[in-house]
Amino acid sequence: MKKIALFFLLPILFGMSEPVSAQGVKQVHELYPFIGVYAPDRFQNSIALGVRYEQHLDDRWSFGATLGFAKAGQEFFQRALGAAPEQGSSTVIFYHGRVTYDFPFGGVTPYTVGGLGVTRQHSESNLTLSLGFGTKFPIGERTRLRYEFNDHIFTSGENNTAWTNNNLEFSVGISFYLQ
Asked: At 150, which CATH number?
């Protein structure tokens, strides 16, 4: 647990300077509405919608948050077997705080992401570790075409019936720098 806390505190230890782009425009706040595919473990894939926000501390580190929505249905099992156990709502809500580390390479920016938050799926709310990577491609002075892949890892069930979920998410969108 100490390692996770240190991971989230590292950006603060490295300074709080504001990044400046190659054009000299300060790009501190980034908003990334996204659409994508969400693959809940043991359920069908679905469309994911959401938004991410990042505050850039410098040209490499940023912290922010994600709020996303998807479905976790079992229609295939219901059709094939006539029934499938499905408790509660099939709506998946995932939200977490995140830390991003950029690897600027010319105009293109690959990055890695680590986050900690909650995934609410089938009436269970679970502490979730989110790990991922993505790339930003410049399409304007304050806009980036962006894709991101995340693995939302959490445990469901209790005692002997507990299992680890790996809910995979792939998203695309255009991020906007705000001042």
From this structure: 2.40.160.20
| Distance linking the first and last C-alpha atoms of the chain | 35
CA distances from 7 to 110, 117, 124 (A): 19, 14, 27
Q: Enter the pTM of the model.
A: 0.75
Overall average pLDDT of the 4-18 stretch: 38
Q: Which of helix, strand or coil describes residue 79? A: helix
Reported as a single tens digit per residue, the pLDDT across 48-81 is 999 999 999 998 999 999 999 987 665 544 555 5
48 part of a folded domain? yes
- 13 occurs within a structural domain: no
Nearest to 33 by CA among 53, 60, 19: 53
Determine, yes or no, domain membership for 19: no
Residue 40 belongs to what domain range? 29-178
Element (H, E) at 19: none
Say whether pLDDT at 36 is over 70. yes
Closest CA to 48 of 36, 58, 56, 33: 36
Residue spans of beta strands (DSSP E) within 8-103: 29-39, 46-56, 61-71, 91-102
1 strand-pairing partners:
none
Report how many domains make up the chain. Answer: 1
Residue 93 falls inside a structural domain: yes
Which of residues 113 and 1 earns the better pLDDT score? 113
